[in-house]
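REVIEWER CHECKLIST
Item 1: Sequence provided? yes
Item 2: Single chain? yes
Item 3: Sequence as submitted:
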Amino acid sequence: METAKTLPGGTYGECREVCVTQRVGRKSAIPPAEVEGLKGNLETTSIPDLLQFLNAGGKTGQLLLERQSDRPEGRTYFSAGALVHATAGAATGMDALVEMCGWDRGSFAFYANVLSPKASISMPVQQALMEAIRILDERHRPDPKVARPEKERSPRMAKSTRTSTDILEDFLKVPGVLSAVIVGRDGFVIESAGGSSAVNIEDLGAALANAINSVEEMGGELQVSKFQDLFVEYGRAVILCRPAGDAILVVVAPDASKLGIIRHKVKPLVDELSQSL
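Item 4: Structure as written out by the authors:
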């Protein structure tokens, strides 16, 4: 067995091949005693993190996700690093992946060399995760045409008690984020956190504000909704832009492969930042 690699919420060591025997009435097809290597809980790592880890390692096998006994379990299957199938209760394919990306409680375990019973996902892991997170965002986005009574508003929608400086510092805690910048619609940088000598924050703010204004103008001509996300990739680096109140949040990451994780983890921070501005 090779030396274990660390992963938030668990460790990964090369697992030996296991034999799967499906038994009617059993919650899991593989006995817990045969779990080796990658296992942990979803409170310390996210499902997008896990899937990208298995993809990067070129693994073949099944990732089992278990929650409370009265809730359905989830399974994802990999073949040489490619995500080929997913199930969550009665849901399969992308529907199952969307469901699981919203889970933040439960346990997980990986079983090496367990083959998928079918193929229900054909897109790359990164693309599948971005699509799943986009669908989740749309599901949780309130309908602007439906006015909610004040008494029904969620406490999370109250104005943030933290300053924008505090929130920006939290962006830097997201794995893969190099800097976070608040840019006004006029192109001037309002506030920033992080950065490096390779990134000129002032020039970045002016250029992106000009690009986003053009994108919104095009959206107006096409009579579509206000832009929600803008991604700009340069080689392996990526820039993510999102509206934040009357300003624009810009997140710079040197590794585009982490975009799915970043997009998933910054969403609650963007919502909080919008309330603070």
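Item 5: Key structural point noted by reviewer: The radius of gyration is 21 Å.
Item 6: Recommendation: ____
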